[in-house]
């Protein structure tokens, strides 16, 4: 976040007390805080017993003897898919709609809990027939269609491990993730609808698997786009052909609580994405607990909608596992918010009478830009609770969200968490917390948060520092796939026995937490995490580039935008104009990583500012990219560099 926006954030004094009617009917009560404060572990054990069905009950709550790898509910056994499906049917809720799905072109499909259960059982039989069993990794590269949810749950049902790769990632990124996880099966689709067109997906899988030996044996292809695709006989199989003969009987067996559930790759401070590993019992407990209490879920009457793609952690925890574990009815939408018209989301809220809506600040800001007239054309009166996630929400966007989308009454929950935390950690509880626009505010019951200075001392009130988590929590990551040392180094080495989140935070006069953005080289573009190093390595992989530096510069809509500075190779510099070089390199990054990583700007420069020890000074480049006066440059080897760069940009 830029220093000006931090300033305005910390001067925000508006307060919104809970509405008494809402509070009277709220799911969460203050006794949750009391119980958790009284006995944190007993509190989590109660949640685990209350919200999760155990094939074999646990007797042990937390084993922290192998810290920082936790074991939660370690001697218990459960089946995650059974918890999301069968048990609701057995409890008499089989006729409740689990998923109202709408495709971008307007085609629809609704699945009740009974129907979804049958689909997942058949898919589990199919995967088992292809040799998938406990511990095997399955890569899922699908659009937001019901099969994405079905595939994830089928993998979970078998005790196997899914690695969902966001459909916006390009072949190279997909390949790196498939290889790192050693996936034996890939589930994909021919194509997906995006912005009114079919975006092919299968070619990326073909390209990924064409490059050298692979662990992948089969590719299951869901028909969605009906676009022409290449076919590798013996490897590729149509999902609909293969699933047709499958039995709809499948007994879900229990797996131990620490059985791996999924790997999800996220950007860190180095070029190589980290495979964040989550397991079963603790994860399911905390996603179910948070989904129920933070969103005030009344499963009999609510229609819930989280706009995240299933390829991100928000899609895992708050599209798939949280809502389905709680027996919620939800909307799933394939497309973009502005296709075929800019009111598409509001039209969907009106059509499905969505009551709980969870989205990202970047989306809210882009709607603000388009004007309130668009949402005001639709009946949004069904909405009774709004959520925000992915990046700090600026107070103006918060207030607009409440007024224009929430009718001036819907409480907003600003939820702070990470791929690594698995579930929401810091958030208001609706009906209890008096909310402050721009602040995630309070750790949830059972969660221990602190803000420390560089030396590890608590900063006290009205002071800023680094956000940490001081006690293990049920849905915490259990490691980085295949790299335990990196897990320890990244999160547990800065402070002793304390999880370092990588975010800056401020505590206000009440001790409430205001998140201030990343303190490392991780950027947050439209709520998506990208590392500067990852994009720099994509840039230098192009023959034109000699050196590259990337920064996340403030952007009014996307929060941050990727801005790159490159030095061209001497002998090639004369062969292209700076504009051509910039266009080529922007396209190259999109090809290498995916369109989300495409730089907003690529500046061709003569030199990059470096410290005497040769480290690129990203701070200075960020100042330049954000058009600020460049501050102290005394540690630079050559102070003229910045002047030259700024001149180039004019
Ligand atoms: C940022 C997304 C401020 C933060 C769930 C974190 C937030 C990173 C908020 C994780 C919020 C997420 N307020 N910042 N409410 N929510 N962040 O792994 O910088 O994609 O470290 O998980 O997003 O991003 P990730």
Write a structural description.
The mean pLDDT is 94. The chain starts with a helix and ends with a helix. The relative contact order is 0.11. It has a domain at 20-435: 3-Layer(aba) Sandwich (Rossmann fold), CATH 3.40.50. The protein is of the alpha/beta class. The chain is built from 23 helices and 30 strands. Helix 12 packs across helix 13 (313-325). The strands form 8 sheets. The chain has an 8-stranded mixed β-sheet, with helices on both faces. A 7-stranded mixed β-sheet has the order 5-4-17-16-18-19-20, with helices on both faces. Helix content is 33%, strand content 22%. The chain binds 5'-O-[(S)-ethoxy(hydroxy)phosphoryl]adenosine. The site of 5'-O-[(S)-ethoxy(hydroxy)phosphoryl]adenosine has 21 residues, from helix 13, strand 20, strand 24 and strand 25.
Briefly note the structural class of the backbone.
alpha/beta
Portion in beta strands: 15-25%
- The CATH architecture of the domain at 20-435 would be 3-Layer(aba) Sandwich
Approximate shape: globular
Our measurement of the CA-to-CA distance between the termini, rounded to an integer number of angstroms, reads 23 Å
Helix content: 25-40%
Q: What's the arrangement of strands in the largest beta sheet?
A: 12-11-8-6-7-14-15-23
As a whole number of angstroms, the C-alpha radius of gyration is 24 Å
Bound molecules: 5'-O-[(S)-ethoxy(hydroxy)phosphoryl]adenosine
Mean pLDDT: 94
| Extended strand count | 30
Largest sheet: 8 strands, mixed
